[in-house]
Each structure stands twice: as C-alpha cells, then as structure tokens.
Amino acid sequence: MRSVFSKLGKALALMVVVSSLSMFVGGASAAEDKGHEIVIDGSTTVGPIAKAFAEYYMEKYPEVNITVSESGSGNGAKSLINGTCHIADMSRFMKESEFKAAVEKDVLPVAHVVAMDGLAVIVHPSNPASDLTLEQVRDIYLGKITNWNEVGGPEKKIVVISRDTNSGTYETFENIVMRKEKIAAGVEYVGSNGAIRQRVQSTQAAIGYVGLGFVDRTVKALTVNGVAPTGNTVASGKYPIARPLYMFTNRYPKLGSHVHGFVTLHMSKKGQEIIEAIGFVPLTQY
C-alpha cells in the first residue's frame, strides 16, 4: 500500500511539472508518425473541441486516424487508466481515487488545460425570467423554489434538468452551485450537454445547465448574479460558474509525436481560433 501512495505522489508531482511545461511548448510537427491512430474518449463538453481539432488535424496529416467518443469525464478517465484511449477529455480535474487507480496500473496521468468554460443556466426562450442569483439556482435544484413565479417567471412548476452524476459538468455544478448539497429527488438526469439543451428547447418550464459551446438561439441563457455567461465574463473571472477544460494523457507525450501535436494544438493560433469559434474561451484570453 505504501508503494501505491508513493507512486501516487510521483504521479501528482509529474502531472504538475509537465502540465506547466505544456503551457510553454507549442504544437510540434508530427509528420514522422506515419499511419498513427489517436483514440479519444470522455467529456461531452470537451468533445466538440476534440472533434474540431481532429477534423483540422486529419486534414493537415492525412495519415493520422483520430476517433472521438463522448462517454463522460468519468468514463474518459477509466479509458485512460485501462489503456483503451490515448487522450481522456475531462471537464473536471481527475479525482484522487482515479489517480490512485491509474498509478496502480503504471499509468501517470498528465493534465493539459486546453480551454476555459462557463456553465450557462438555460431556460426556454419564451420564459420571461432573465436573472437568477447563485443562491436561487441552488434553491431550485434543492427543491426549495418550485414555481417560476417565485423568480420572475410564469405561473408554472419548474422542470429541473441536470447532467448525469458521471459527468464532469455535473461535478462542477455540484461544487460551485450546490456546494455539495444533495440535488432534490425528482430532478431529471440526462446524459449530455446536447440532451439538456434539447430538453429545455422542448419544455417551456424547464431549466438546465450547459457549457458555453452549447448555448444557441434555441435556448435562453440567464444572467447569474447579474452577469451574462460569455467568453469575456469567463475570461475576466466575473461569471461565477466557470472551469478549465482538460485533455489527459498517460505521461507527457513524446515531443514530435502526433499525440503531442494534438494536445498542444490549443496553444497555436489555429487552435485558439477553433476554440473561440465553438464558443469556449482560449487560454490566451484568460
């Protein structure tokens, strides 16, 4: 057991060192890795970034085949630990228990922060409610506020939608908004950001939360504490529900490899343009 925790400490130390290093190393040429395959799994929030990066990267390097799955942050961590993916997309930091499980299998997870994100609280466009405090959002999910007329909306019972508990988005919401208080019974759980958006689109009394990249004209993003969820408010620290987005690898990838080129793409001008176009916040703005 002592050796396991010794390995865990080394893994955490290595993660800090190489994660910091990745902030200063640009995306190197990866042309020498002929016929390489990159398997990516994990967060549905980071998924759009990974897919857009993959499309661009495969155009640049036709010999590379990249597959992106979106099974949730927790499953992304499991895939990396079990050696079934090269990159784990995660919208939260890896848990201590996941690090422990990783080092027991000689996997040393390294975090690459690729973008910043805000969690937008969304409602149906017809809902007249426009602003909630963080406390009001919490009380809705605790079941203390149950009707929209209590917070400037119509005389309708609130339909509360949440991400599934395996999601990094759920854990961010749980930590920042719920402050670890238990979400009320009767709340509906769905498996992706897209599923929350779809549910809110079709339900006039619904409320949900999604990453910035999933806000469009089909839903209405509320201001929280009077601050709208935008790239600028996330970058400035004004928006209260914000988080970094990660790609994890097993150890720091070999310089010049395709995996290295992929997980450092966010530091290039093109990578930053892709992130911003999707609706997330490039690190250069943070």
Comma- or semicolon-separated keywords:
PBP_domain, D-Maltodextrin-Binding Protein, domain 2, 286 residues, phosphate transport, 11 strands, nine-stranded mixed β-sheet, disordered N terminus, 20% strand, alpha/beta, two-stranded parallel sheet, signal
Architecture overview:
- With 286 residues, the chain is of the alpha/beta class.
- It folds into 2 domains: 2-116 and 245-285, 3-Layer(aba) Sandwich (D-Maltodextrin-Binding Protein, domain 2), CATH 3.40.190.10; 117-236, Periplasmic binding protein-like II (D-Maltodextrin-Binding Protein, domain 2), CATH 3.40.190.10.
- It has helices at residues 2-22, 47-60, 73-81, 96-104, 134-142, 168-178, 193-201, 231-236, 258-263, 269-278, and strands at 37-42, 65-68, 87-90, 109-123, 131-132, 159-163, 188-190, 206-211, 220-221, 223-224, 242-250.
- Strands 1, 2, 3, 4, 6, 7, 8, 9 and 11 form a 9-stranded mixed β-sheet that branches. Strands 5-10 form a two-stranded parallel ribbon.
- Strand 6, helix 6 (168-178) and strand 7 form a beta-alpha-beta unit.
- Helix 1 (2-22) crosses helix 4.
- It is globular, with a radius of gyration of 20 Å.
- The model is unreliable at 1-34 (pLDDT under 50).
